[in-house]
Amino acid sequence: QVQLVESGGGLVQAGGSLRLSCAASGRTFSSLHMGWFRQAPGKEREFVAAISGSGSSTYYADSVKGRFTISRDNAKNTLYLQMNSLKPEDTAVYYCAVRVGLAYDNWGQGTQVTVSS
Asked: Which residues of the chain carry a pLDDT beneath 50?
């Protein structure tokens, strides 16, 4: 079982940047395919980005492609999401998770990102 703790959220103006972190413990982090998801008020949770265990492969939702960058530091057991050119529609609670088979599990508690216009 892996434990995940997100941090780095906050309030930012449109056009600004934030970097989210997800600290992992409990398993060999470098073997884990990881993802970021978000959930806005009244909406379903949606995929944002994912990264392979080695960090060599990354995947993005079309809505964030070119603005967000997912990365990881396996020596620090930490996953990151660099968010640039933020828009009000990026406002949501952001979660990290571990891919287990074809699904994601071991959700963190989430970190709130609020983008003001």
From this structure: none
